[in-house]
Amino acid sequence: MLLLENVKLALSSIKMNKMRSFLTMLGIIIGISSVIAITSIGASAEAVVNKEFQSFGTNAMYLYMNWEMTADSGIQYSDLILPEDIDALKARFPEDILYVCPSLYGSSEIKVGRVKGKLEMEGVAADYNKFYRMDMVYGRMINESDIQGKRERIVIDEKASRHFFNKADSVGEKLVVRLGGENKELTIVGVYRKEPSIFDKMNTGSSFITYVPYPLLQIGDDTAVALMLYINGEKNPTELGGEITRYLSRIKDKDPMFYKFESAEAQMDMINNVLGTLSIAIGAIAAISLVVGGIGIMNIMLVSVTERTREIGIRKSLGARTKDILTQFLIESMILAGIGGIIGTALGIGIAAAGMGIAGVAVIIKPLTVLIAVGFSAMVGMFFGLYPARKAAKLNPIEALRYE
Amino acid sequence: MNDEIIRVENIAKVYENGDISVTALKDVSMTVKRGEFIAIMGASGSGKSTLMNILGCLDRPTDGSYYLEGIDINEKTDDELSSVRNKKVGFVFQSFNLIPRTSALQNVELPMIYGKVRAREREATALKLLEQVGLSDRSEHMPNELSGGQKQRVAIARALANRPQIILADEPTGNLDSHSSLEIMELFKKLNREEGNTVIIVTHEHAVAEFTDRIITFKDGRIIGDQTSGGVA
To answer: Cα(A4)–Cα(A6) distance, rounded to whole angstroms?
Structure first.
């Protein structure tokens, strides 16, 4: 009952000094809004990174030569990864290597009728779409017989299909590309669609990403300097990567460190780690302003206690106990800080939403963060309100009544 | 039959201020019976306000004992004294001491808030008390919208909120014109005669003291006179 009275009392006292209350809250507002904005931006950025990696496949692994070790002697033929090495890897890790393909890329300017464009061609093995997140909307993906038969096939993006053929379904159409100095006529066997990624924006010009059987990109011989793998997701990618590269080094009779790998999951973890640490660090700096805000509250509460000394004396003469006066001022400072916390949260969410809106990314607000922020600001209010409230509560009633 | 409501035995009050000690009360003894109407008179600095503060449990004597309705005040903690003030004593001050920017009604409700009276009951009692002091049409007014006499009537209504036996008034007419003073004194008299409240008024005005039945005179911290007027025992 007394609590409700105190809340009412606090609100009316805050209302009575609107400007002063607002200025007092400002410290808390700035502190809370920056903490909320920073953590939300951090969480949103993390979500973006995770989404990118998920579409790429978190089980992706890239295996390559240690270039530093070849710097002195130059690349030897024996360094290169041969088809039989790939077979050996598959035989040694049948459960763990789900997909393996020499990492090969090519590009070509093409012309269909009068429409010009540039194709980026990625060499893939069969069933690439089972690992890489892409939707086949027409036709099919490159399959095993395309690989075996080194067939001149290509899978293009829906946008490319519309660009060159002015229709979504261009399965069966042909594209003439230049590969290894000669023209090749590739038949479109599939059209895919891919969710837009933030990396698309970095892709300038009218270049389209397409997929072809990897043997088509092996010009001259069938060696590779790097491999693209998808591994068993239940295994620790770092351990498995180590096993695979050590095995490869052994069968190639090389230094155990000669082949290296990067795993998508490890990279994702690393980026998330950096983002997490960064937002905690910046958030902590922003939290310092909360302390400054708290001191502001303490200051104004001390002023308020002095201003209301006589009122405190009257209340005491009417039967208010020490505890009642303490609660009254404590609640006032907590409400002051709490309102600041709520305004700050709203502002912080606004800032995060605006910032992420510019980047074109959905903002992520963690309800827990909001709860903690408002709770923490009320705690700041309590902590910094305690001293003034105790000072008020301990006033001698007679002296307080005499105060002018 | 114990109709003795206040018993003060050899109390003294000494204010220590660094090296200087000021004696405000010396060896004061007195008793007050239930339903008495008393004026405490004396020049300023005679110790009458100090006695009033002790009687109202706002302050403690340095020496001697004070029993209020048989309760030994010296044995009570500060918070227990708050509760005694809340339930047993109603204060009326010279400078009204209403809480600013708080309506007359809310001012009257205040002692009941600390007395943990329910909100609905509080409001009903406060309205009744304001009616009793003739201010039912001013209940929503703020103190600064009221005249001195009206303020003091709100203060009296507030003093009555928890139905205390004792009303202590420290120079209640000190800031009022003669007309309002008269009204306020009539109100005290009515409370004493009709409601049976024990009323103790500190004053230096003879006109005010005339209203009461017993006049206790102070000088230099001692009682120098205690006369009952009008043949009322």
So the answer is: 5
Paired strand residues for A122: A105, A211
Give burial (CB, 10 Å; 0-12/13-18/19+) of B76.
Answer: middle
Q: For residues A46 and A322, give the distance between their C-alpha atoms in angstroms, rounded to a whole number.
A: 50
Q: What's the rounded Cα separation, in Å, for the pair A89 and A286?
A: 51
A50 SS3 class = helix
Find chain A residues with C-beta within 8 A of B83's C-beta: 319, 321
Cβ distance of B79 and A323 shorter than 8 Å: yes
Region class of B59: left (phi > 0), else alpha (psi between -120 and 50), else beta = beta
By C-alpha distance, the chain B residue nearest A313 is: B97
Residues of A within 8 A of B116 (CB-CB) are 1-2
Which pairing describes strands A207-213 and A259-263: parallel, antiparallel, or unpaired? unpaired
Q: Which residue of A has its CA nearest to B117?
A: A1
CA-angle at A61, arms to A261 and A198, nearest 5°: 115
Is the CB of residue A375 less than 8 Å from the CB of residue A62? no
Token pair of B145, please?
A: 């919208």
Is B85 close to A319, i.e. CB distance below 8 A?
yes
Helix, strand or coil for residue A283? helix
Which residues make Cβ contacts (< 8 Å) with residue A157, sequence separation at least 6? A191, A192, A193, A194, A208, A209, A210
Does residue B124 or residue A6 have the better pLDDT? B124
Residue-wise pLDDT for A252-305, tens only, equals: 888 888 888 988 888 888 888 888 888 888 888 887 888 888 899 999 999 999
Report the predicted TM-score, pTM, of the whole model to 2 decimal places: 0.73
Q: How many residues does chain B have?
A: 233
Residues 6+ apart with CB under 8 A from B188: B37, B156, B167, B169, B172, B199, B201, B211
* C-alpha to C-alpha distance for A349 and A368, rounded to whole angstroms: 13
Q: Which residues lie below 8 Å from residue B107, measured CB to CB, with a gap of 6+?
A: B98, B99, B143, B154, B155, B158
Give the model's pLDDT for residue A204.
55
- Asked if A187 and A152 touch (Cβ cutoff 8 Å), the reply is yes
Burial A120-152 (b: 16+ CB within 10 A, else e): ebbbbbbebbebbebeeebbebbbeebbeeebb
Residues of A in contact with B53 (CB under 8 A): 398
Query: Which of residues 55 through 114 in chain B touch A, CB cutoff 8 A?
Result: 56, 58-59, 78-79, 82-83, 85-87, 91, 93, 97-101, 110-111, 113-114
